[in-house]
């Protein structure tokens, strides 16, 4: 019988996401990482590596500074996680840029453009069905 649903790695990843967000917001004093939002955490199945996806607002130069600050703070973050979570092995923390936000914004923009084009070509589908 195959297991379905929520796996342990998913539950641990969700807990890590909440804790890392809290640590970055409340414990890290580095001004470079103040504008960071933790969006997701992907854990390897053996729970050894946690890839923490973050988004930042700013230019590419500011983004490089943010990731330099996160890299420098990763040891502190891992230590804080060790105090907050009861895991046999604490995963290595790797910060990565989340590209799903801008990708989602682009898809929404394209859908809006498609909707405007459809209306310009002869009205919406609601108008066609009501006549």
Give structural notes.
By secondary structure, the protein is of the alpha+beta class. It has 2 domains: 8-98, GMP Synthetase, Chain A, domain 3, CATH 3.30.300.20; 99-131. Helix content is 54%, strand content 17%. It contains 4 helices and 3 strands; from the N terminus they run αββαβαα. The chain has helices at residues 8-26, 60-84, 100-120, 125-130, and strands at 36-43, 49-56, 92-97. A 3-stranded mixed beta sheet has the order 1-2-3, with helices on one face. Helix 1 (8-26) crosses helix 2. The mean pLDDT is 83.
The assigned CATH architecture of the largest domain is 2-Layer Sandwich
Q: State the end-to-end CA separation.
A: 54 Å
The helix/strand order is HEEHEHH
For the record, the CATH class of the largest domain is Alpha Beta
- Give the helix level as a range of percent: 40-55%
Q: Examine the coordinates and then state which fold CATH places here, giving the name of the CATH topology of the largest domain.
A: GMP Synthetase, Chain A, domain 3
**Rg over alpha carbons:** 21 Å
Number of strands: 3
Question: What is the typical, i.e. mean, pLDDT?
Answer: 83
Low-pLDDT ranges = none
The fraction of residues in strands falls at 15-25%
Biggest sheet details: 3 strands, mixed
CATH superfamily of the largest domain: K homology (KH) domain
- Per the principal axes of the C-alpha atoms, what is the gross shape? globular
- The overall number of domains is 2
Q: What order do the strands of the largest sheet run in, or round the barrel if closed?
A: 1-2-3
Separate helix tally: 4
Computed structural class: alpha+beta
């Amino acid at each position: 019988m195959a297991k379905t649903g929520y796996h342990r790695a998913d539950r641990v990843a969700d807990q890590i996401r909440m804790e890392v967000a809290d640590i970055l917001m409340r414990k890290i004093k580095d001004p470079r990482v103040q504008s960071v939002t933790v969006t997701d955490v992907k854990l390897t199945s053996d729970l050894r590596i946690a890839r923490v996806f973050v988004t930042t607002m700013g230019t590419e130069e500011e983004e490089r500074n943010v990731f330099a600050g996160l890299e420098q703070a990763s040891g502190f973050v891992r230590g804080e996680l060790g105090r907050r979570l009861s895991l046999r092995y604490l995963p290595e923390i790797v910060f990565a840029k989340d590209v799903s936000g801008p990708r989602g914004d682009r898809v929404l923009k394209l859908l809006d453009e498609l909707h405007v084009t459809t209306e310009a070509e002869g009205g919406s589908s609601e108008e066609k069905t009501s006549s």
